[in-house]
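Quick one: structure for this chain?
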Amino acid sequence: MRRLGVVYLFNWYAMFVYWQFITLCLARTIFNTQDPNSLAFSSAQLLTGKVNATYNIVTFCTAFLLGWLAKKISPVGIHALSLLLAGLGLLALPLISNTSLLFLPMIGFGIGWASMMGTPYVILAGSIPEEKTGIYMGILNMFIVLPMMLETLTFRYIYRYVLQANPVHAIYFAGLLITIAAVLTLTLRMGRTRQPEPAYASH
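Got it. Here's what it folds into:
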């Protein structure tokens, strides 16, 4: 639980950064603007909707496959690989200036998002007593809220003083955090109390 909480800290902190800065990043990398009142910025907002729709479609299409692979192979290995694909996707995203190619990093990001929605619960549920499932799952959900609170309190300073108030750097930072989460996932160990069926959901 503690190790999984650390993984959550990195990947959920990164997700909140992504949601906040993806439009600003695309406005700069695709439309070369920082003016929120410009027509180009409005186009960036529309593009964000398409980008987010792309990764959610990928999530929907891959969730059941990930569940099958997690059952057949290893939830830990599948989650680590999925997070790695998501992290690499975000690291590649700012490098793309052609809108038609943006779907490529979103494939990896969508796979990572699908895994975030289900695989950690499989990892945890296989390592705790069945009668305490509700308690531990509730605690695990708190590990989503805590990174959000931490990001709200701290990222403004990281963004200003470390990332030079550059939204492109913010997306790179999010990609790095998810990649670190992928590496930390490899420290997890599955227990043998029971092996539940994976449950996935799209967002």
